Protein 1
Amino acid sequence: MAGSNFDIRQRISAVTDRVPAVRKHVPSLGIGDRLPFYRRLSGGQRFAYRLLLPALAAMTIVHFIPILWGLTISTMGVDLTYASHWYDAPFVGLDHFRYVLGIENFDDVLVSDTVVGERYRNALKNSVIFSVGTLVVTYVLGLTAALVLNQKFKGRFVARTLLLLPWVAPVVVSLYVWRMMFTQQGIINQTLLTIGLIDEPMFFLIGDNSMWALIFAHSWTQFPLVMIFLYAGLQSIPKQLYEAAAIDGAGRWGKFRYVTMPQLKPVSAVIVLLMLLWTMINYTAPFVLLGGAPPKQANVAILYIENYAFGNSQFGRGAAMSVVLFLIAMVMAMVYYRYLFDDETTGAGA
Amino acid sequence: MIPEEWRLTQDRADFLFDLLSRGVLGLFIVLALFPIYWMVMISLRNPEEIGTSDPSYFVLSLDELRTVVFEGDLDLLASEVDFANYVDMWDQIPLLEFYVNSLIIAGVTTVLALAVAILGGYAFSRHSFPGKRYIGGALLATQMIPGVLILLPMFLLFIWIQTETPFKVVDTYHGIIFVYMTFTVPVAIWMLRGFFDSIPASMEEAARVDGCTRFQALYRVALPMAAPGIAATGMFVFLTAFNEVLFAGILAGGEVTPFSIGISRFQTQQTTYWGQMMAASSVATIPIIILFALFQRPIVEGLTEGGVKQ
């Protein structure tokens, strides 16, 4: 009977599917290979698929379909007229992309639109500065904090809790506090005036300083995350490595240089990538800190896209701009990974 | 020549190094706490004083502080600490409504996202199945997608549903909750997978031998053991939903405005009510900080689990 053959197979796989090493050595019964995909699965595997079904369904609706959809409307002239029936909008091919990337100027659009492309490219540049700047600041702050936390002292747990608070406090709230502190009468200006570093109040939220203010305020909310990742990495470094380094005559610097940093490389790799990508697509920080009319020095791409697409009801072109931003994030991630994993010296990186 | 007793011995170098690192730690703690401290201080100030150029770091000016400390003049302290902001903020903007909206949106999002993510995280932790790598990769890839890329089609979809079908989705609880839930599920799955990984599977196997179904083993045995991790993940989801501004601004800006968007109304064309804004912020922040203090161990472990292992 075919059925009994199937039962045997199921019983074997019930034992073996937990242990991949054993599974390899179980000879195939032949018949199972011809069964349809779903019947070939063991009970545990079917159970796993059933458990994942709600999550996959929801992600399909809110992630995968919208991305394909976003790609579609980035090739269509969707504006206010077509807002409620986007599918009727005319197909424009790659015009939006050519336009926002400045490859070609179009005569059939508004005159002021030439400026839009320039502003968008400027916003892209700002996004990269914001992302790299935040990475550097959070990494330096996070690593320093992790190193001082990693020593044995009384009250270490309390200190760790306190250092995590910037990340725990609701980001929106923290950023409004920073916005308040950065104002002309704010405490930062007052302090600098009292110390005598400046003679008159500085502008932090408009003009050239705004990017620095943005990077710093955002870094304040994010450095605890970097810190806790690196701290966990520091904790997992085997003590023997330090002992061996001490025998070889390494001092504090030597241990840091030849034990700590190489051992932290895998953790650093993950958190560096996450910080780069998350900052690149962060909307909350620039929106709350700089508000609806951000200065051009700190108008990052995602903020610009949102303002432009919804302010002018240019949904198709907005989608094209978001696709470009997405591709830049992807390329950054890929270049970073290629660099990281091709580098022989990292070793532990994989 | 350096005198003998000044020479830098190993002990002294260690001592100096410890001193230095404690100093750096102190600096970091000040840096981390000052904005939070300042938020509370501004909220306790008299609204008229906030804009003045007196750079005192306390509700009292230095002279007043001296009077309070050295002459024990507690009445002065009581008269300077001003709770007016905490009283006035409710009338300035419909703040209570914003809080309630945020609690409903973030609370329901948390419950739904956890329900979905517990199942998914358990599947990832306990089972191997074809395509696991790809599904896991897709979960992480969702983290690189700029919000606007999702928001634009979502907006068009919501508008279409609103105009072409009898359902209402724009500016409703269910609309924004559905979007938030799916947004937080990938990270929640990732965190919960780590928590389930840290629980030995032997108990569930024993339960299976005793006749439990796979699902019973999940919710009767594994679920209670993962409770701290679930609480931590829940808090993470809650905070994510509470802080969201991009989708909330477009899809829920009107009747169901959450706190994250509503708080900006303290800024008007004429003036900004910083004192009241900070009072409202303190009311939102302090419960969250207390909750974090309670659940911090699993939260911290859950966050770093995935990153350190890879």
Note: Chain A touches chain B through 106 residues (CB under 8 Å).
Protein 2
Amino acid sequence: MKRVLTPEMIEEKRQDVFNILVDPTSSHEQRVTYLARAAENFLTVLDEPEGLDELLRCDIDTRCICNLFEGDAPYRPRYICIDFEKFLREGSAFLQLGPAKDFSEALTNLMIMYHNIPSITNYPVYIGDLDVLLDPYITDLSDEEVRKALRLWMTTIDRTILDSFCHANIGPKATRLGYLLMEVEGELENAVPNLTMRVAKDTPDDFVLAGVKCSLKSAKPSFANDEMFRGELGDDYCIASCYNGLYKGGGSYTLSRLILSNIAKRAKNIEDFKTRELPYVMDIMARYMDERIRFLVEDSGWFESSFLATEGFVQREKFSAMYGLVGLAECVNLLLEKEGCTERFGHSDRANQLGVEIMDIINDFNNNHYNKYCEATGGHFLLHAQVGIESDHDCSPGTRIPIGEEPDELVDHLNVINLFHKYFPSGTGDIFPMDLTVHKNPQYVLDIIRGGLGMDIRYLSFYGSDSDVIRVTGYLVKRSEMEKLDAGQNVRQNTTGLGLGASKNCKILDRRVR
Amino acid sequence: MTAEQVALLPGAGGPPRATVNKIIPFSCVDGPGNRTAVFLQGCNFDCRYCHNPETIQTCVHCGACVPYCKPGALSIMAGRVQYDIKKCVLCDECFHHCPHGSSPRTREMTPAQVMDEVRRNLPFIRGVTVSGGECTRWRDFLVGFLTLAKAEGLGTLLDSNGSHDFSADSELIAVTDGVMLDVKAWTPEDHVRVTGWDNALVRKNLRWLAEQHKLPEVRTVIVPELFDCEQTVRNVCEVLWETGNLNTRYKIICYRPMGVREVYKGLKSPEQAELQRLAGIARGYGLTDVVII
């Protein structure tokens, strides 16, 4: 049913708009983005499932479904992953650009394209497999020429794409461009873009090590299990936004998330959770996502009007949607408490097993839910371990072990992770701050990455425990920028604000250093 | 006592055993890459600056530590101190109160038992490192354990003070990829002052291991007032240069008073500039991997 806005609700929304206008900690670009969302939220075009309001638009401590700041009238897909190879090869009529003939043209054309790709944040969440895209253009250039161009170009990205959900990919093949990019990114210590190195069994150790060294300085790249993603999504996958596996030439229409910790509060016991409360909320969230997708595809006109779609850089048929969740750890702990058990998620077989059982239920539900516009992924959504937002409290990202409760030994931590990563083709990951500066042993991280590839571990991130650039939950921020914002100054990137909130509410600066 | 426990008692025969002080599942500081580090109890040297002196002596089961164990991980049974690793909170009160410079926090283990603990760290590790104490004092155990580790495809490194004649132990060397050797001082007089022992064998091992290319790392703890540090660094570098081992990592380790026994705490830490100077000398010999720790 469609919502009705009461005069009080409209007055409240007007007040929201005013607050955005005058917020001294928002830059102009940030205000424009938030104003657009506020305008969208005056609309009531969605035919929402009954019962949604009390799960979604309610107090934070009882909220069971969260739409992650998507507005009430979706007018563009949340995540768009365009086919950049086609773009460099053919150019774009809309952008009045021909094929890129050399390195400078390729860099310029890409930058132009980036500023024409929308998303939930209005910035591109995927900016291409940079090594595959650019390596063919550097054959006749010296290393220093390429480094210099990359330094300028990557700096331009950092200063103009004002949001670190912007994500580039490299690997699994080693390329000269890939090596040079790792060098330059290690030097620059920028928060944008986020970066993933896809690692396969035959990715050379030396290339992975170049990535590890870069990550200990600038908190990126993260390392993705290429074989695992390829097995699920095929060869045309990319990693976008935080760590989301999606199709190139497609993307994700939408992402909502189950707040499992709050759903557990509704349940009398484990059985009640598994058979009544969880299925009830899962069904409402799935139907809410169905309706959002229907409006976007059938009513918004985006796929008929955007040059990205009309020129074939994306195809509607390659989109899917992300069915997210957070707070599995707190959910398990609370359910066990209700049964008089004090064992904790991440530390006991019983607790971890309950986590697995809950994931199996969610996985089965998703595999039995059909959406006709998700044909790319068999008519089903893709499960996503959402990284949390700054207002979350007592609710850990996805299936992560809560910060402060990490097992003493990293091997035990990894063995828990290994139980859960397999459920999430559209993304999950764990983060480890490392103290390796003194002993100069990046091979240590390489060994952990290699070990994970042989198991069911999908995605690992590392950062130097004393770096300025750090990984908050899935995205990157600079500590120095958070300090500025905390002192009341406005800062360039949207994500700095999210990071600051997370450092206060989610203890992200207290992760166990390995 | 179970049959297995009886078999572990000293003099009971069976597989060689070692007193294990600690097993660190993932270590980034005991050789290249990620390795499981096994620390064996007992050392023949008595270095003044030893930062884990509780590993020097073996436990005599006097029981003096037991009353200090608040979580109850220690008890006495049949005249022997029993240690329950599950109850231990690693507060270190036990060895701080040990009158014999030892630790009750050890386990008697066979090679197979240690390997069982190592196995759970696969596939994240590239190898094992056995350290101490002085690990070569458990030579038979080492041969057994390293043979098992090799069979799992793991690399094998030893951390040694160089007091075991490796050139005369082909069985041990056959299962050892390399020895990370401490060279604590160069002249015998200095070496005696630092450790209480002569170093003819250490110097012989340095050259012999270098010639075999089984010397991935050399370490020297820098304490300027205790021995001639520059002379030591220069002599180590000469051997590495002469034997074509310029890629051997040389760790120039800053002496720090952490963990050091009260009587020796007066030793001064070297200035950073002095460490840099020594590292510069080492690099001057062409060494490619000099690290100040």
Note: The domain at 60-105 of chain B is CATH 3.30.70.20 (Alpha-Beta Plaits).
Protein 3
Amino acid sequence: MKRILGKAWKYRDNINTDEIIPAKYLNTSDPKELAQHCMAGIDEDFVRKISSGDLIVAGENFGCGSSREHAPWAIKEAGISCVIAKTFARIFFRNAINIGLPIVECRQAAEEIQPGDTIEVDVDAGKIINHSQGKEYKIAAYPPFMQRLIAAGGLLNYIKASQTSCENKIS
Amino acid sequence: MPMTITEKILAAHAGRDQVVPGEFIEARVDIALGNDVTAPIAIREFESFGAREVFDRNRLVLVPDHYAPNKDIKSAEQCKIMRDFARRQAITNYFEVGQMGVEHALLPEQGLVLPGDLIIGADSHTCTYGALGAFSTGVGSTDLAAVMITGKIWLRVPESIKIIFDGPLNPWVCGKDLILYTIGQITVDGALYMAMEFDGSTIRGLDIDSRFSICNMAIEAGAKSGIIAPDEITLQYVRERARRDFSIFTSDPEANYCRTLHFWAEEIQPQVALPPLPENSRPVDQIGDIPIDQVVIGSCTNGRISDLRQAAQILKGHKVNPNVRLIIIPATQSIYRQAMKEGLLDIFLEAGAAVSTPTCGPCLGGYMGVLAAGERALATTNRNFIGRMGHLQSEVYLSNPAVAAASAITGKISHPREVVSD
């Protein structure tokens, strides 16, 4: 997996998918075009301010609202390397895992990280490192099935691999 | 081991005797749904996967409803991607403009979703069909693509939260008020990842349209699904529509719930949810004078025939306030025709409302009623997020159709009794 290291952009609770990608931009499904409007419902200049590798850090229920996969696509294509939140809305959670956008639930990190902090996420070692504050947080491991989805690089790659190996069971 | 209705449906579709909350299953899908916004991505993923045929051309339903009839050239391209795919794959249940309706009103009406089904839809309000006693949940486009390929979906079995309403309804209170009230009590993530199971004497007395409104907004409390066990009212609705067999499941009396809430319907007045979250619900007569610029009556939440009847009952013999645009959108063609037969459309037009062909349009700020900066709408839709219906500095308030209709007449958010007697 690509190294996750960048600056934190911090948001409140209940960031909804209309804020991540307003519906007026849903007349396209091109990830690159969507990326130009990432977070436009809350900060129209977001994509001009961020650098590739930066992280979004948010509170409860990140990604609530519509099922639009345009939201995680926009975030991923904009160059955001990971989203850390206290909790994720369930469809956003599925979508992110399915398309291979790294997301991490960590209440304490989401609370303590300040805007602009330099954050590293080491998924394999299961930790978040806040270089600006010199703090580390343990990340709870995903259930085994999800780990396999993530390792495969998303749902469709997982299905492809399962079909080839003729084992397409969840356990 | 005792199980909830949700666990029973999931077990049946996973080929298991039982499932427990928290475990991951692979489940067979009865119906999969996509629309003009979400299906194009699913189709792209389906094709780049190298898949040739959908798992079952009778079980994938495609509905152009969000930006259809095409709102602009780009939307037209998205609709065309879906239409071309539907033709190539000979999809039985593709609904062209002229046949289509707002998907979550259309599928039940067409008898495509039935009790005991497992339904996934690339639209968050897919949870609506729980009103028929089905497990039904919203997913994204990649999930839809995976179902289009395999006919199966991975699911984490949700915990269930039980919401019981007992007692008679107050005048002008309907399903919409009960769900707005519930979200107000438990907040927008109060049922995160859970199945919301509704029961109690009030729920049993509700017509099917009110039940659809309730399950439709389960997602607004973060839930995976909403569900109401089938009863005679459900069966009456389903029997004349179903073209295949279906199964009735109910929860065991000893089933486990992570939480049970008990509400008294008599304590609930017509609700209004203030921006920017559906959890900001209050009784309409406690919010003071709030002038409005636009009223929208329609959507997958409240665009059904009983919603239109309620609105017409209020609007009859009245005129829309000169400061307000009233937009009424019957959710499907058959609702539209029924409203015409009953004379409801005449009442709307006489009052000065604009009546539109079915579309999701204004609910998500797409078209057919987008708001300018500083404008305020009262809508029977489901989300009042910042900028939901247009400019980031516009506002959306949510209510039932009777409150919306009354407010269109007075020009401010109003209890129906300000316009007609209880």
Note: The first strand of chain B starts at residue 24 and ends at 28.
Protein 4
Amino acid sequence: MNCNIAQQLTQHFLDNALSQAEARTLELHLEGCRDCRSYFIRLERTTLAVESLPRLAAPPDLYVRTMAAVAQSAAAPRQPQRRWADLGLMAFFALAGLLIALQSGPELADSLADLELADPFSLVDSLFVVAASLELSLLAGAALIFAAGCGTLARLIAWGQPSPAH
Amino acid sequence: MAELESILIEEAKQDSRAFGELVLRYQDRLFNFLYRMTGNREDAQDLAQEVFLRVYKALHRFRPDAPFRPWLYKIAMNLAINHAKGRRPTALLEEDVPSHGPLASPEGTAEQRETQQAIRQAILELPEVYRAVILLRHVDELSYEEMAQVLEVPLGTAKVRLHRARSLLQEKLREAGIKGGDHELQHRATAHPTLPG
């Protein structure tokens, strides 16, 4: 075993992730390698030293200050501009939907009338035909772009508000 | 323990006073972590307050089945790393007082204090990510899985970072001349009590 592997095994030993066989291999190497033996002891000693550092208590006023800040945050209305922005976004989507319905409704009715539907299956088929028509696709695409643009606008209105931490 | 924490978190979503229970539960650990990250009590206190406030504001989006502790430490670590950006490495000016915990003792020889001082300084001289990894594992005793969640990396990557952090730290301590010369090391290694097999 070379020294690089011995040093890796030393790390795994400190992670409690060595098998018995690996531990035996490491032990044999350490018996014959002064550098790796030094590394092993230094690394273990370092780990123990970090673990034995005193744990400090929080200053007494941390709780008081934190809860005052929390109370202030709880009392403040939560992002009112964002709410307005969301409402605006919803309104734009509704408007876009309405426009589609108004534009495509009569065409749809005409198309359905032309097809002289006889049973539910042909109705479903005809709906697919109508939905796939170029005119309707263009209309829907335009409405989506319009809605996306409005959404961006609404987000811009909300921009500048603090966002919640992750 | 985890169930009690889940209940506390759900209550804290509804009631800011219940959030106080979470603060009490974590304030010492969080302050200690941030103090070891920054080396400064005032900074640690300010950052701890900011962490709690951010947690409170984002708590309504926290899933009940998600682990809370890694989330808390992730916020703390990121804040501490951002805080350290553009600053010069911190030199320690203060002693670790007051302290508590099973390993904390007001007594101690001058040699022990000197060693502790060197360790604290060496930790502060590590790059922030390695500093955080060492503290998360060996002071805050997070599991490897929790550590990976805090770092947002795969488990193997988290372990590699910890190994690198340990190596860097022992190197710094060796440079600082912390006692443990080769003669003594040889003596210990020949009859090492903790190596299995």
Note: Chain A has a mean pLDDT of 76.
